[in-house]
Amino acid sequence: MANLILILGDQLSHQLSALEQADKDNDLVVMAEVYDEASYTNHHKKKLTFIFSAMRHFAQELEQDGWRVHYQGYHPDNPEQSLEGVVARLAGEHQPEKLITTECGEWRLHSQISQWHERLGIPVEIRPDTRFVCRKEEFAQWATGRKQLRMEFFYREMRKKTGLLMTPDGKPEGDQWNFDASNRKKWTGKPPAPAPFREEPDAITRDVLQLVNDYFTDHFGTTEDFHFAVTREQAEQALEHFIDFALPCFGDYQDAMSDKEDWLFHSILSPYLNTGLLDPVTTCEAAVQAWYSGRAPLNAVEGFVRQIIGWREFVRGIYWLHMPDYARENRLGNTRALPWFYWTGDTKMRCVHKAVDATTRNAHAHHIQRLMVTGNFALLAGIKPEEICDWYLAVYIDAFDWVELPNTLGMVMHADGGYLGSKPYAASGKYIHRMSDHCQNCHYRVQDATGERACPFNALYWHFIDRHRDNFANNPRMTMMYRNWDKQPDERRQAILSRGEWLLKNIEQL
Ligand code: FAD
Ligand code: DLZ
């Protein structure tokens, strides 16, 4: 027997580096559903269903393609409940020359796999993950000598590297790199938001749904109405669906939130990109093609491309540059526990309730809900970074440490001291009111900062500004906020701060 080839649950690409130059007749591909991976966080039931079902479909495709595959389905009585256990047993049984794998997406498992050669007694070849535009070393080189990293400059490099939205003479299409300024419209119900792509569960997915409901009962969320794609072909259909129905308005309403619509004009492609069912560059090329053929405007297509070859690659670069220390950062010194309503949605704050409710049902909430509602609240309330990070890692179908951690710890919590983002995304209720219709259905009054019914985001915002004066007063992007705060009468400031104190003490009752 030649080699064992280990493929992880988020490595479901036929072009995976671990499969390159393999000997289909002799090598053995190993895939395993194991308790250790299914339980390192309280994964949403739909996330478990998606990953197990997509893994099973991928293994089936490999077999149909002539590969020899050892697939372990999940069962609580399986003797091996870790990837290492499964590989060790197969190594004992088959005496392979070596184990080949593609570098994994998360420090926790990466540090384990890096030790396996000693523990298994066979060589372990870890190949680079070629499914990203920017290699880890390339990012490290770009970051060298920069005190702060700015996505915008990195993104321009990625545009040049891929040629996406570039003219033949090397200029950005539309003579502008970034069209974000046109992407901040409030959505008032028109044009109607398209229904998301749906794939009805087949027999494999139905088996997995049963398994998750039998053995992962205490995990977050529900399996009800599972409709995600679970194969590459279906994911490609989801991409087409997005381009036909949502991309034209993606830019305009990218920052909008709605009381009535969960998905708005977002692509819902992150689960497929993160597990390898879709390739990021091909995905962007399809969107760019829609612009060239007049089916979508430039502000939408540029915004979409920026999220994928800009933000997505940027956060991955930061993750690998600074792990494992990055995960321990807490520069704002937060100590508060995560409120229980993050798990139940049981809060009178309408925007938070709606975001958690969508998260519970769908294992998805769109970016502005994650950033400006649940994220913003955690920032203002001074929640411990590790608790809020673990929440985001658990509850979203697309959550993997390499992408979740920098977004939460860096972008949302500013716990890295502003390395990832130049200013904290802190906002009062006014922002949520401007970008959504939540406030009109809320128990609290968004126009008030004090009083029993005042929107908690308001007093918490000023409390945050006041208590972090040392951190932010000298930040040029925050000067205006401090000026506004300082020119309030003393009495008013005291009233707001007392309200803020009260809210923090009674956080579970909000
Ligand atoms: P769209 O809005 O349609 O965007 C298109 C694609 O761009 C996404 O599919 C995604 O691949 C990429 N993208 C957009 N924004 C980001 C970003 N900030 N970082 C990385 N990629 C981005 N995204 C994840 O994939 N996994 C996570 O675990 C994750 N955790 C997040 C945690 C917080 C606190 C925040 C603020 C954002 C997080 N994001 C995460 C980024 C973003 O919210 C999701 O990618 C997006 O909501 C997924 O839905 P979509 O596919 O409809 O995205
Ligand atoms: C997320 C996940 C889950 C829930 N289960 C498995 C599993 O049973 N087997 C597996 O190989 N991978 C799983 N994964 C994905 C891994 O946790 C993922 O590869 C790492 O988090 C690295 O990104």
Description:
- The chain has 23 helices and five strands.
- The mean pLDDT is 96.
- It is mainly alpha-helical.
- The protein starts with a strand and ends in a 5-residue tail after the last helix.
- It has a five-stranded parallel sheet with strand order 3-2-1-4-5, sandwiched between helices.
- It has three domains: 125 residues, HUPs (Rossmann fold); 136 residues, Alpha Horseshoe (Serine Threonine Protein Phosphatase 5, Tetratricopeptide repeat), CATH 1.25.40; 169 residues, DNA Cyclobutane Dipyrimidine Photolyase, subunit A, domain 3 (Orthogonal Bundle).
- It binds flavin-adenine dinucleotide and ligand DLZ.
- Flavin-adenine dinucleotide binds next to α11, α13, α16 and α18.
- One of its GO terms (molecular function) is lyase activity.
- Keywords: Lyase.
- Pfam families: DPRP.
- This is Cryptochrome/photolyase family protein.
